[in-house]
Amino acid sequence: MSTNTSPAVFPRTRPKALNIMLWVGQALLAALFLFAGGGKLANPAMAKDLPVALVYFIGTAEVLGAIGLLLPAILRIKPSLTPIAAVCLAVVLVLALIFHISRGEISHTPPVAVFLLIAIFVAWGRFTKVPIQPK
What we know:
Blueprint: H1 16-42, H2 52-75, H3 81-102, H4 109-129
Helix pairs in contact: 1-2, 1-4, 2-3, 3-4
């Protein structure tokens, strides 16, 4: 007795649960970076020990990264930019980890590490498992 595993019996479908988890991760990261970056742009003095130009640069990068996580995927125009934005935000988070550790702010590192893992997950998922198809 043989089992038939032809594509007609088991069609390849997009992993719906993974796609939903990726969208949740994208939305969570976008909200985080819009809030954090917007705060830096609205009040750069909140980062007392850093030059204002650097705070503006980081805030701008965070806001643009947040937009890049959602807008290309939602509009399906250049959706390959979504995982690239996730990688760039992962780099920002690695730099934030280094910054907080160098200042002895160890209590700030667990949330940053969690968001780093989410950014890596989104990049991996959108590059390899469930990429958004362009229009």
